[in-house]
């Protein structure tokens, strides 16, 4: 905390430099409960001179310092979001709890495929990757989508003239049924088509996705209308949030957590929605004010059951979870490998499951990220390299995991692992135990 105190003291000592900014936005340099954080996630270590910056506000209502060229210098954030509360016994940071793991979980916060947090590293040249290791990282830019893709068409194709709300209703229905359409955005696409076909396999029925009355009736029977009202709570507005997520892993490693960056991002994931669609449903709304009533979709309750077998279909970009009796329990859109960085073939097993995991970056056994050539401990959080879940596979360095970019699931390729949305990965993880088989099919 000494660094935070130093910055606050610096701000107080340099209060005269903020006269113009105070006049414009009412900036209070004496506040001890806030910090100035750069876009890279670092604490601003100096006080800008008078006239050097102006103070504006971002979409969350936070004060933002901007230089004369229009570049963001820093964002004012609450100190307790940058320095999270500590466990009274161990003194370790307390991160968000994603629920109690089922028997067989190892919620140890370290992603399999990386080295232990303690120990030595036998280094090798960084330009000579080890055999059978993926060439890309879990949140590296996805490779060009050149892998063969299977086009899925339901028995009754979806018409092109459905309204956005009609498509939303269809997506919500499929989400509640356990055949995930990915992010709910009111748009048609292969993720919706795949979910429809999976629903037919799961139920043995054929549904007409164009019959709005039938879809609405099914929604009423499964939890109510697709769109509902939600009141933003003080906890929603408080976070914790981080100012931004840097690309560079060495900067990621300096953050206390890779939490959400805004209330909108958090609420979008909470309700399985696309961020832009959430904003579109609530034009002009300030999501940072507790008590604000907004429109959201009502997704389904998490699926429950015991998964005995997982099939990762590379062509369909979809993951199927089957129960012990062979029936389909759930289906999820996924990003699975690419032509350049393929996923494994054949059958592997789940070795362990970690909720809210950290990520240990090791340039020797993982991949080369930027100019980083040291082992880095990346903190956990939904915006972490593997999102909220890591299910390690018996093929070293491969796993099933979440993602900080849910809108890209099923629409881009991965670097060999299986990516799901954070909410789908968490749902699947709670139905999986070590020893479950994962079959990769083309």
From TrEMBL:
Q: Which residues form a coiled coil?
A: none
Keyword list, A-Z: Cell shape, Cell wall biogenesis/degradation, Peptidoglycan synthesis, Signal, Transferase
Q: Where is this region: Disordered?
A: 120-139
Q: Name one GO molecular function term.
A: peptidoglycan L,D-transpeptidase activity
Keyword check for Cell wall biogenesis/degradation: yes
The record's InterPro entries line, in alphabetical order, gives: LD-transpeptidase, LD_TPept_cat_dom, PGBD-like_sf, Transpep_catalytic_dom
For this protein, the record's Pfam families field holds: YkuD (PF03734)
Listed under GO cellular component are:
extracellular region
Example GO biological process term? peptidoglycan-protein cross-linking
User: What pathway does this protein act in?
Assistant: Cell wall biogenesis; peptidoglycan biosynthesis
Active-site residues per Swiss-Prot or TrEMBL entry: 401 (proton donor/acceptor), 417 (nucleophile)
The positions making up the signal sequence are 1-20
- Composition-biased stretches (Low complexity): 129-138
Residue ranges constituting the L,D-TPase catalytic domain according to the UniProt record:
308-441
Instruction: Tell me which PROSITE patterns the record gives.
Output: LD_TPASE
PANTHER family in the record, alphabetically?
Answer: BLR4375 PROTEIN (PTHR30582:SF30), L,D-TRANSPEPTIDASE (PTHR30582)
Family in the record? Belongs to the YkuD family.
Q: What is this protein called?
A: L,D-transpeptidase
Q: Which organism is it from?
A: Ciceribacter ferrooxidans
